[in-house]
Amino acid sequence: MSEGALQPVKLRQLVGYFLRLGTLGFGGPIALAGYMQRDLVERRRWISKEDYVRGLALAQLAPGPLAAQLAIYLGWVRARLLGATLVALAFILPSFVMVLGLASAYVELGGLPWMQGLFYGVGAAVIAIIVRSVQKLTKLTLAKDPLLWAVFAINGAVTAVTESELVWVFVASGVLVYLVRIRPRFATNAGSLVPWGWWVTGLHGPATASTLWKLGIYFAEAGAFVFGSGLAIVPFLHGGVVEHYGWLTERQFLDAVAVAMITPGPVVITVAFIGFLVAGFGGAAAASLGVFLPCYLFVVIPAPYFNRVANNPSIKAFVDGVSAAAAGAIGGAAVVLGRRAITGVPTVAIALGTLLVLLGLKKVPEPLVIIAAGLVGLLLWRTP
Question: Rounded to whole angstroms, how far apart are CA atoms 175 and 179?
Fold first, then answer.
């Protein structure tokens, strides 16, 4: 078998991989996408480079959390609807269970102040992981194409300045690359219901059916209309959860985001923590179903058609532009997150130390690096 040929993989192996990734994959959506590239494309060769890039582009074009959508698409590539469904469950369930445990402790203990210390270190380490992921992603998607590098730079700058990922910029990037590559040849190509009890009890007592419906609908809107990585959903959630509905205080909302960052799996699992604080297990389930169901549908419905047309020169040019835009937006997101996570000399040291470890000791698992950074942050946070 040639070096670039795909290796055979059974569905249980693929599902097992995503179960482990959902259990041990720290670092947020960008890092998770990087792990998938490293493990499935480069090391195991279960997924082709072309399918990975298409999945990344589709995940950026469709609203919802990037890492979960990419995982669902890769599951679809290998085993169609069954693969997409099993991969989605395997990827999401581990972090969902962990967040439920932390949310239960939060409700019982009245807060988790130690999270701030852990996040102090974890946040800095995550920046290093993102930088490393961007470096790998540029190598995979941009090669030496100056047009794609220009799209990358523009999207990085836009994301860094606006602190958001703008879907119209992704689309415009795809159109730009399409026009530059295809337009000169355009003329020749023209033909071609819920039981009550403890499990619906949140911080303010048992929740009503109305609250559960509101949770499900609100988070479905978030999953259906927020584009980009899981981190992009945070500003949208703040406006509804804190300001509009008043379900959580500012401090509780920030704790929910911190929980998402210190647990593995998709960052958007923070919705389960929020849902639990509002309405117990039922709230967590309603919020999670609401946010993940749209992203699942946005992948499995267009996937068959997306795959069929991806090799068309016009579509390929558009996808190349969107992929370059996605890589640029991820780089810009690293700048945005870095401004919030790198807040002094200790965090600079943690970030640089993490990056050096990742570059020099490539066999050290990222979860160990994240845990070490969190412990260092906890020690520094408690030091007068």
Answer: 6
